[in-house]
Write a structure and sequence with these properties.
This protein is α/β, with parallel strands linked by helices. The protein folds into 2 domains: 6-52 and 309-440, Lyase, Ornithine Decarboxylase, Chain A, domain 1; 54-306, Alpha-Beta Barrel (TIM Barrel). The protein is built from 12 helices and 22 strands. Helix 4 (101-109) packs parallel to helix 5 (126-135), helix 5 crosses helix 6 (145-155) and helix 8 packs parallel to helix 9 (273-290). The longest helix is centred in the middle third of the chain and has 21 residues, at 227-247. The chain is globular and about 70 Å long. It binds ligand LLP. Ligand LLP binds at residues 76, 78-79, 97, 120, 179, 218, 221-222, 257-260, 301-305, 340, 344, 401.
Length: 444
């Protein structure tokens, strides 16, 4: 038994509001992004494939710089990184948040200026720290007491490394429990409430090799409300005032991390950046004035809000199965290229491209090709009633935390990333092949 039919008008199936601004409807159900037909890209590069709209990335960088003219905007590379991405970010004047020697070295190889990089990580390896010091990263964010002496020792007696201290301000925010990082009882940062932040600050101030430029916090991810950021600002300024009392020190910087939420489906709303900029700036000035502190330079670290809306994932339908009341549309990718639905219950709005949709829609669940029932890409979504093997499905808002979190599960091979720009397509990352798997497997 198949799902009941709905009419397209009532479904919003043709809504492009969460797609890249360059998305255009072509004839016969075709769509283009960055002036390039998605069906043409699928034919040329195969599926699954990730398409990244360079102009959308650049436009989002510019929106941030315009909204926060007085702040340092630092892109969080964990959302998506490639050499081209590092170059675009550098050219747009942003900094880069890296959290491993791997990210750091890739960005460095692309020519990203190390002094504009910030190294994060709750468990930095000796190699992470050594690479950061050797290449000269701008800031290292201290996340645990044991790092302090280690960074100071590796900096050498003549060295002086700029650092920040990551504080847990006790603010709960974020789209899912697994990505809330602003409260005690999770692995990141140093607590304000139990005094470990204050203790770490005192220790850093006692190290001649370390220059403490300010405090950092990152309260969570996929946050769509401004208020938690304002609470975080008040608590951070409160701590800055206590540090001045105890140590006579004021900080030139305050890093409020990222976490800015985006809309994944039509009708959802992301964080309002203009409101965030206005209210953050006001809150920071007022809190600092009340504490008679100089206003520090603001640093923000958006990842998702720059990369996610610029990406589109392309899949080919392999099977359509009616199982009881449910219709499963199985595609050639899955949790190995997008683990977000399995990890966080993330919801997406896939769309049929490359042929006319027809008048009727069904409720379906788009699943992947992996060997487990939790391999779902989009549950309970509306698709054209006639969806069938060979159809092309495109999923918007796919530019963050998908390719960067992709795995080798079932040796399916990670998909390629193709950049589109003014009508041309360019392969940034090639598809992972059997040859790649065979080469790493050296134990036969
Ligand atoms: N700064 C720090 C220190 C972070 O840990 C993160 C993200 C960011 C900035 C950027 O956050 P964004 O603006 O992208 O929300 N895999 C999850 C998200 C994990 C975020 C980890 N940290 C997801 O797919 O939703």
């Amino acid at each position: 038994m198949s799902a009941p039919f709905l009419t397209e008008d009532s479904t919003g199936l043709d809504d492009l509001s969460v797609w890249p601004a360059s998305t255009a409807r072509l004839s016969q159900g075709h769509l283009s992004v960055g002036g390039v037909s998605l069906a043409g890209l699928a034919d040329r590069f195969g599926t699954p494939a990730y398409v990244l709209d360079e102009d959308e990335i650049r436009a989002r960088c510019r929106i941030y710089r315009a909204a926060f003219p007085q702040a340092d905007v630092v892109y969080a590379a964990k959302a998506f990184l490639s050499r081209a991405m590092a170059r675009w970010i550098a050219e747009e004047g942003l900094g880069l948040d890296v959290c491993s020697a791997g990210e750091l070295e890739l960005a460095h190889a692309a020519g990203f200026p190390p002094e504009r990089m910030v190294l994060h990580g709750n468990a930095k390896t000796p190699r992470d720290i050594e690479t950061a010091l050797r290449l000269g990263v701008g800031r290292i964010v201290v996340d645990s007491p044991s790092e302090i002496a280690r960074i100071a020792a590796l900096a050498g007696s003549a060295g002086r490394q700029k650092v920040m201290v990551r504080v847990v301000p006790g603010v709960s925010a974020g789209g899912h429990e697994k990505i809330r990082t602003g409260t005690d009882g999770q692995k990141f940062g140093l607590s304000l409430t139990d005094g470990s932040a204050q203790h770490a600050i005192a220790r850093v101030l006692g190290q001649a090799q370390l220059e403490l430029t300010g405090l950092h916090c990152h309260i969570g991810s996929q946050i769509t409300d401004v208020k938690p950021y304002l609470v975080a600002v008040r608590r951070m300024v409160g701590l800055m005032a206590r540090v001045r009392e105890s140590h006579g020190v004021t900080f030139p910087e305050l890093d409020l991390g990222g976490g800015h939420g985006v809309a994944y489906r039509p009708g959802e709303s992301g964080l309002d950046l203009t409101a965030l900029a206005r209210r953050l700036t006001a809150e920071l000035s007022e809190s600092c004035a009340a504490a008679a502190l100089p206003v520090p330079r603001l640093v923000i670290e958006p990842g998702r809000a720059i990369a996610a809306p610029a990406g589109v994932a392309l899949y080919r339908v392999l099977a359509v199965k009616h199982a009881g009341p449910k219709t499963f549309v199985a595609v050639d990718g899955g949790m190995s290229d997008n683990p977000r639905p399995a990890l966080y219950g993330a919801r997406y709005a896939p769309r049929l491209v490359g042929r006319p949709a027809g008048a009727e829609s069904i409720m379906a669940t788009v699943v992947g090709r992996h060997c487990e029932a939790g391999d779902v890409l989009a549950s309970d979504v509306l698709l054209p009633g006639g969806v069938r093997p060979g159809d092309l499905l495109a999923v918007p808002v796919a530019g963050a935390y998908q390719v960067s979190m992709a795995s080798a599960y079932n040796l399916v091979g990670r998909p390629p990333v193709v950049a589109v720009h003014e009508g041309t397509a360019r392969l940034l990352i090639r598809r992972e092949t059997q040859e790649d798997f065979r080469r790493r497997d050296i134990g036969a």
